[in-house]
Write a structure and sequence with these properties.
The complex is a heterodimer of chains A (about 180) and B (about 425). Chain A has about 180 residues and is an alpha+beta fold. Chain A has 2 domains: about 90 residues, NADH-quinone oxidoreductase subunit E (Arc Repressor Mutant, subunit A), CATH 1.10.10; about 80 residues, Glutaredoxin. Chain A has 7 helices and 4 strands, in the order ααααβααβββα. The model of chain B has no long low-confidence stretch (mean pLDDT about 95). Classes of the chains: A alpha+beta (about 180), B alpha/beta (about 425). At the A-B interface, helix 2, helix 4, helix 5, helix 6 and strand 2 of A face strand 3, strand 7, strand 10 and helix 13 of B.
Chain lengths: ~180, ~425
């Protein structure tokens, strides 16, 4: 991840923007306080707190890393180590609709790559990238644990099962 | 053999996730019974049932519980492994999304038996967002009825459950990886020993059980160990969920007594091969299980019989491949998975899985070299048994078995620079590379 690509918010020559401090809005703060009551150590609250942060801001920015580290008494390096280890924490902004196509074996033999290629082509976007209007991000993901209803496309938090190219088109029409 | 409805008894009922439906079906009776027994008696009962863990390794559950030391200096923890990520496996999701109270009741009993401290966790993979919301709602209902919280049913036993969501890492299904993740770290497995039963999460003795395993516990308490043993064969007991996916007409989760015949399952219950094509290979226990050839599938699906056939039952994720599938491409896809999911901690796995993927990819693209089939075997030899956790061994399962059983197909790729003529292209080889 630590490449010098211009879109990489974590490129080594960039620093968190101190002029844009982040803080949980009151509703999220309440949820965070509840999380603290459910684990015996502050560090154990890191994963749920990052999920919460991603729910609020859509991705985990370098500023968020600093903020979450401050909340839980963890160094930014520790927090970023966790953010970059787990797939689901977005290290750059994603589109309004995060289209995650499972292409693992059971989905592949049910033509998942056709859906994936079709999405990239139709939305005119490279794999893993976001459309220019910021609406869609298309990524290939590993097994989503829904092989019996393959192929599966996860849109944000929702599973769409038994998909094919025409169903995908119909779904895109709904995702405005 | 006829399908049964024991673990799946509730899932077709309307509103099956609600606590009232669960109680109407006889739910939460087992905790009344269990809380009147001594914890050791509950453990003994599960031992007597000869249940083996449903997560993959098939370790006897009662024995696992009995390894927890009494009077340990730190509190004991119960963790439910709901990080169902093995390609081909999708059974735990059914329990969590359709019958969450069965799992919750099982956890209460397990927590009581091992002397768990008042908090425990269901570690559910992050992608199962819906499952997590169903569980959260079910936990609220159980708390409201007094099945969770302080002094459950007047027994003096305090117990509560929190849903801890993962964030997309297969390795967190490994029990020490899961423990690390619950503690808020990267999910990198620990060196064993010490085993989790001695030092696990937050430094205390820890029992990690699979969802399906815990879901069996209330049934054993209600109906007894002998009833449980009446399903299956000795040492391979109980009802079992089988997940069938890939090139079959009716994929899905099927429940049978442990030991349904694999051939019968595919042809009689799953409607046979899609499009009446020819069966080519079966992966019987999730992505890491060695492949079986069509003439090897006349065997009962239990831990011992599948192991004897040179594979493993694992999580009972059965992936069926027909003759349209290029074996090299299929194994490449699985290797790509393992390379992606390797935690990066130990060298044989981190480097080896990536090399397996690269070599398989070049064979598939028609750039394979003469020695490549043997190269795959020798690389596998340098991963297997030499990695820190079981992921390395998992990664070589499909590679070794496919090179041994489909050597001609590998050689065809290398000689003719193309797949077998009857196979179908399931992915474009000229697809652009992902931008991340």
């Amino acid at each position: 991840m630590a490449d010098l690509h211009p879109d990489n918010p974590y490129a080594p020559d960039r620093f968190p923007d101190a002029s844009k401090p982040v803080a949980f809005p009151p509703e999220a703060k309440k949820k965070f306080d509840y999380i603290l009551t459910r684990y015996p150590t502050k560090e154990a609250c890191l994963l749920p707190t990052l999920h919460l942060a991603q729910e609020v801001w859509g991705w985990i920015s370098p500023e968020t890393v600093l903020y979450v580290g401050g909340l839980l008494d963890l160094s930014p390096a520790t927090v970023f180590g966790v953010v970059s280890f787990y797939n689901m924490y977005n290290q750059k902004p994603v589109g309004k609709y995060h289209l995650q196509v499972c292409t693992n074996l059971s989905c592949m033999v049910r033509r998942a790559y056709d859906i994936y290629d079709h999405l990239c082509e139709r939305l005119d976007v490279n794999p893993g990238a976001t459309t220019k209007d910021g609406r869609y991000t298309v990524v290939e993901v590993e097994c989503l644990g829904s092989c019996g209803t393959a192929p599966v496309v996860q849109v944000n938090n929702d599973y769409h099962e038994n998909m094919d190219v025409s169903k995908m088109d119909a779904l895109l029409a709904e995702l405005k | 053999m006829e399908p049964i409805k024991i673990l799946t008894a509730n899932i077709d009922k309307p509103n099956s996730t609600s606590i009232d439906v669960y109680i109407d079906g006889g739910g939460y009776k087992a905790i009344e019974t269990a809380l009147k027994m001594k914890p050791e008696e509950v453990t003994q009962l599960v031992k007597d049932s000869e249940m083996r863990g449903r997560g993959g390794a098939g370790f006897p559950t009662g024995m696992k519980w009995s390894f927890v030391p009494k009077n340990a200096p730190k509190p004991t923890w119960l963790l439910c492994n709901a990080d169902e990520s093995e390609p081909g496996t999708f059974k735990d999701r059914v329990i969590m999304e359709k019958d969450p109270h069965l799992l919750i009741e099982g956890m209460i009993i397990a927590g009581y038996a091992i002397g768990s401290n008042p908090m425990s966790y269901i570690y559910i993979r992050g992608e199962f967002y819906y499952g997590a919301t169903v569980l959260d709602k079910a936990l609220d209902e159980a708390r409201a009825k007094g099945f969770l919280g302080k002094n459950i049913l007047g027994s003096g036993f305090d117990f509560d459950i929190t849903v801890a969501r993962g964030a997309g890492a297969y390795i967190c299904g490994e029990e020490t990886g899961l423990i690390e993740s619950v503690e808020g770290h990267r999910g990198q497995p620990r060196v064993k020993p010490p085993f989790p039963a001695v030092i696990g999460v937050f430094g205390g003795p820890t029992v990690v059980n699979n969802v399906e395993t815990l879901a069996c516990v209330p049934l054993i308490v209600n109906k007894g160990a002998d009833w449980f043993k009446s399903f299956g064969s000795p040492k391979n007991t109980g009802p079992k969920l089988y997940c069938v996916s890939g090139c079959v007409r009716k994929p899905g989760v099927y429940e049978f007594p442990m030991g349904i015949n694999l051939k019968e399952l595919i042809y009689d219950h799953c409607g046979g091969i899609l499009g009446d094509r020819k069966l080519k290979a079966v992966i019987p226990g999730g992505a890491s299980a060695p492949m079986l050839l069509p003439d090897e599938i006349d065997l009962p699906l239990n831990f011992d019989a599948v192991m004897k056939a040179g594979s493993m039952l694992g999580s009972a994720g059965i992936i069926v491949l027909d003759d349209s599938v290029c074996i090299v491409d299929a194994v490449w896809r699985l290797s790509k998975f393992f390379a992606h999911e390797s935690c990066g901690q130990c060298t044989p796995c981190r480097e080896g899985t990536n090399w397996l993927e690269s070599v398989l990819d070049r064979i598939e693209r028609g750039e394979g070299r003469k020695q490549d089939a043997d190269l795959l075997l020798s690389m596998s030899d340098n991963i297997g048994g030499k990695s820190l956790c079981a992921l390395g061994d998992a990664a070589i399962g499909p590679v070794i078995s496919s090179v041994k059983k489909f050597r001609d197909e590998y050689l065809h790729h290398i000689e003719h620079k193309s797949c077998l003529p009857e196979t179908v292209r399931y992915r474009r080889l000229d697809a652009p590379v992902a931008a991340h």
